[in-house]
Amino acid sequence: MQQLVSAFRRTRHLLPELQIAAGRLAAAGRLADSSPAASVDHLLFNTMAEPTPKKARAGYTHSREDFLKVYEILRDELLNDECLSAANESAQAKAAQEWFKEVNDYNVPGGKLNRGMAVYDVLASIKGAESLTDEAVFKANTLGWCIEWLQAFFLVADDIMDGSITRRGQPCWYKVPKVGMIACNDYILLDCCIYRVLRKHFRTHPAYAQLMDLFHEVTFQTSHGQLLDLTTAPIGSVDLSKYTSDNYMRIVTYKTAYYSFHLPVACGMVLAGIEDPAAFDLAQKICVEMGQYFQIQDDYLDCYGDPAVIGKIGTDIEDNKCSWLVCTALQVASEEQKEVIKAHYGRKESESVAAIKTLYRELDLERRFREYEAASYARLDATISEQTLLPKQVFSSLLAKIYKRKK
């Protein structure tokens, strides 16, 4: 323990690294009955005054590799949580710990990571990358991973509800033979990881309550969007009268826009110390429109994207999804073409899927999507350029990542 005290006094600005060191000591039984979190908290609150924060190391590049290193730190902290502390004493607990690790590694870090990495980008755009301390960088990336855990929770649950086959180029988690419906508990665990991480790294932060409220609010909004999606177009029950543009935009706003765009931007703003309600309102407005555009891209890629590139087999037609493609088709189709949609949409047979895709080609939906994409980008770009409440880079970096994306 004396070694840990000495190390802390020399390197308090490297708190994240110290937490990992404490975790390893605890795992080896060298902290007696104290958990790593308790040991570090004791040191944090019972030593000298805080030193001047250390600036982030020169030349820090916000790369996927650096971001993934933070995931490994946070995951290992979770594995050393007191709930799993008996892993060295019990074969049952050890098996649960190994399962928990696999749940995380299989579902959390495998995506594009745009949502999570955006938190640092927003913070750096507001405060200036050169002014950020190591701690600020770590906290931004920690919040980013909380968003990726939220994404993993949603996707594991969504794949079960949709009966999806693949996700990110591999079988959906529930499709792994040994998993099945254990995945229902696993997505609850993934959600719980968010609040375990927030408590560990932000419980003394002045914005802790605000961050907790933000994640809870966005989770509720997204769950509401999923409810709208499932009840508007339930699998096996086709009611084309519900496939309207208004219904569609309501679904995608709640199901996608808030957690994919508003949440990362709001997290970065909170860390940057932004308090102006007008700035948050503006950010929400821009992010919601960006999220709508993103989901319409997703609907297009579900039908026209290469499964080898997008990492999944599109099933929106078979699953009777209220997608942008079918809503647009119903707006421009003739009565005869609408009969084709009624006869074949929402059916699993390959002939029905082919009939819908043929109709989409007849209606030139690819061209209509390209026209929508160009208009949406121009509108967003103008809004971003004209506003003065936040640095333009807060939003333009996000828009650049999704414009004309292929996956």
Automatic annotation (TrEMBL):
Cofactor needs: Mg(2+)
CDD domains associated with the record: Trans_IPPS_HT
GO terms, molecular function: (2E,6E)-farnesyl diphosphate synthase activity; dimethylallyltranstransferase activity; metal ion binding
Gene3D superfamilies: Farnesyl Diphosphate Synthase
Lineage top rank: taxon: Eukaryota
Endpoints of the signal sequence: none
Stored PANTHER family: FARNESYL PYROPHOSPHATE SYNTHASE (PTHR11525:SF0), FARNESYL-PYROPHOSPHATE SYNTHETASE (PTHR11525)
Protein name per UniProt: Farnesyl pyrophosphate synthase
